[in-house]
Amino acid sequence: xxxxxxxxxxxxxxxxxxxxxxxxxxxxxTSKYTQxxxxxxxxxxxxIASSGLTLDEACKILNVPHPKVGxxxxxxxxxxxxxxxxxxxxxxxxxxxxxxxxxxxxxxxELEFREIEEQAQTQKEMKEGWKPPxxxxxx
Length: 139
Known about the structure:
Layout: H1 2-39, H2 42-47, H3 49-52, H4 55-62, H5 74-87, H6 96-128
Helix pairs in contact: 4-6, 5-6
């Protein structure tokens, strides 16, 4: 009987410890996001955008390389997203929670791609100089 009680106490304490650690991580992420928003630091705020997912977490969820490390193809990201999203369809026995995490991961990676593309466009304009758009005159 004492073995059973000991096992219950040990397993219970493990569950509680994991819950406390996870709650601390979430509170820490929320705190960082709030502080970044107050300071107006958009880079840090965007790093934790989309429901608290970091870019690393989003890449792990979709199993794609980090955009800054390698040339991650958006086509590959969308293929992984569609496959995982369909596999986790609740009507097919999947998990709505996992489906929503997959969606948030895709949104987070898309946000990063937009920022990279904007930076590339800015760098290109700075190298070449700004060219006004062509104006067409009606005949």
